[in-house]
Amino acid sequence: MDTIVIVGYIAGALTTVSFVPQVARAWRLKETRDLSLAMLLLFALGILLWTLYGIWTTSLPIIAANVITFILVLLLLGMKLKYH
Amino acid sequence: MDTIVIVGYIAGALTTVSFVPQVARAWRLKETRDLSLAMLLLFALGILLWTLYGIWTTSLPIIAANVITFILVLLLLGMKLKYH
User: Fold this and answer.
1) Chain centroid, CA B40 distance in Å
2) What is the pTM of this model?
3) Which residues constitute the domain of residue A77?
4) Which among B14, B33, B48 has the least Cβ separation from residue A49?
């Protein structure tokens, strides 16, 4: 596999996996007050467009990372709306 | 300009701009308790690698978005460490 593609996968893994401790923290503390709702909404919309960009440019790291990130951000959005 | 590139720029603008209300909220409330430190660290590292990926694949939307996002995430990291 190309080095560039590997770096893309690691980058995607990191930015995607980074949302796991955030989801876990919100879930554990049942607290999302310091999370910005505007941030979550804009980010979710952006991630959807990144997925589209990945599909069009056939960049598998971008597609994989953004689909999973989108699910995690949806979880955060749900908790933000529920716990607020 | 190619439609694909335009979608990439909009996606990058959204995921990048999304951090502005988060930085503003943390700054205004002087509160970052609900932000996960692990999330910010992993995300910052991932963003650095995305920038590298963008440079290697000469994807200007990816480069531009990630450089600005990196600065915003550094601001959040600074506030997380300061206010915690």
Assistant:
1) 10
2) 0.89
3) 3-82
4) B14
